[in-house]
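Fold this sequence, please.
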Amino acid sequence: MSQIQFRGCGTALLTPFKNKGTEVDYDAVAKLTERQVEAGVHFLVPLGTTGETPCLTDAEKIRILQTTKEHAAGKPIIVGGGTNSLAQTINSMKVLEPYGPDAFLIVVPYYNKPTQKGLFEYFKAVAESTEKGIVLYNVPGRTGANIEAETTLRLAEEVENIIAVKEASGKYQQISQIIRNRPKGFSVLSGNDDETLSLMATGADGVISVASNIDPVRMVKLVEALEKDDMKTARELHYKLMPLFKNCFLESNPIPAKAALAQMGLMENSLRLPLYPATEATEAIIRETLKELF
């Protein structure tokens, strides 16, 4: 089965809530998806970390994916499906697969702290459970475990439908090793907005972005400038966006990003516990950040 090669700017979509977090705001899901499409974002990533997915029911996940797909205007969709249990991850994928995602984003299992051999066998088993593409998601700051370059490359070489990695390790040498030695057609995507320029300048294919929830137009322009080797434009955009990159992580993602979209009138500033809305200090910094951008 042929797979999409993911390139460019993908947005790790927020999940808007209403009624103090008790309900998903599906109207806002639709409007936010349309906003991304209008900005020219290349692909969409619902139900990831930024979407507060561990706090969603299966029924909510299905409807979020359906709504995103209905309003995506044919843009490719990578949907989050990973947990820290093989059985639960496969079950999550089976729940979502009938609703038409193009690929699954599967995070390194968190809390368990698996070995490299365990990670290889886990991702191999996940990939064998579906014909859809699998995007590895390496974010050791959240999971407590790092998938090393050798393991990523072995999976890319040996498992046909493992098609990409979202690298948020911050380990430039490791990511460079993957870029240098990856097989043809395997995409490397930055998982950190502030590393988009440096990683794409050395061969990465794009980014799965938090900041593009807030400023999708500039994030698309940044990525497209890098694809054209227009470093002058890319640098200008990078420095324009740097305060946003930084301030999206003043508190745990997606707390500041939700504060920003609420200030922009695009969603209610509601999160589900254990996450909690931004402090007044963060709100003030986000307000100034938005003034500088827009």
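The beta strands are 8-12, 17-18, 23-24, 43-45, 78-80, 103-107, 133-138, 162-167, 187-190, 206-209. The first helix runs from residue 26 to 39.
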